[in-house]
Amino acid sequence: MSEQATSTPHAISVRGVSKTYKGGFQALKSVDLDIRRGEIFALLGPNGAGKTTLISIICGIVKPSHGTVTADGHDVLRDYRATRMRIGLVPQELSTDAFETVWAAVRFSRGLFGRSRNDKHIEKVLRDLSLWDKKDAKIMTLSGGMKRRVLIAKALAHEPSILFLDEPTAGVDVELRHDMWNMVRALRDTGVTVILTTHYIDEAEEMADRVGVITRGELILVEEKDVLMRKLGKKQLAISLQAPMQTLPEGLGEYALELADDGATLLYTFDVKSEDTGIAVLLRKLGDRGVDFKDLHTLESSLEDIFVNLVRGTP
């Protein structure tokens, strides 16, 4: 790896990248993004938001209309060979060499990138992905989940330092998804930078170090996942009532209260950042009004709640 590549703290740097297709459709609008070395970065967005277009540009598959991208310090257009050696891509589509065996397809993929033969590495990749017992099977005979594992194995065959996973667990059963999560974490622990797009919000919440949200071609937010949860997450106090009520108690207009579960639960939304949540005073006021309750517990908004609100443009 060159001095230039090791001097930058970022595995990927995107500057002012736009993409307008023939016919005038603007898929990306001046995107700026830095992805750190050795992190798991989740790119979230609805269908048609521009996720796959951005990944394709970074990988050198699609040419941007404007802007520049560097991978490991190398310009993805001017130094295409060097950047492709460093990048592994697992595409969304299950396009595989149907008549090849798993072993042959993965070993051939390594050779495509000019890497010398290394059967020990191929064996390790297949074992890590629970594919070793299928190494002699033709890909056409595998299940959808197994075929997706083969795509990941092919992307890892040439030992990339940056791995893109475009909807890696789409159509994959829950058990296999958890296996893949563990594999991705293990790759991150060895220094591989992982960028994933996903429709499964729990996947990003479980795995990502940072989250980016893209909608209508614009990157509207990039944030540490934990910081994002603290900034935009809301907490609710769920008060289970002894007896259902039809309307909210009078004189509590300053509290963000709502009834749920057909009046059996009173929900109080409060700011997680506030030193004084107001809970103690609220409970006293409820007692003063003869409202009896049998249980209290807090509910915290998930990354999915935050994502939906961001895309809708609501706070």
TrEMBL record:
This is ABC transporter ATP-binding protein. It holds the Pfam family ABC_tran. One of its GO terms (molecular function) is ATP binding. The lineage of its organism: Bacteria, Pseudomonadati, Pseudomonadota, Gammaproteobacteria, Lysobacterales. The keyword Calcium does not apply. Keywords: ATP-binding, Nucleotide-binding, Transport. SMART domains: AAA (SM00382). Residues 12-241 form the ABC transporter domain. The keyword Nucleotide-binding applies. Signal peptide: none annotated. InterPro entries: AAA+_ATPase, ABC_transporter-like_ATP-bd, ABC_transporter-like_CS, ABC_transporter_ATP-binding, P-loop_NTPase. It comes from Dyella lipolytica.
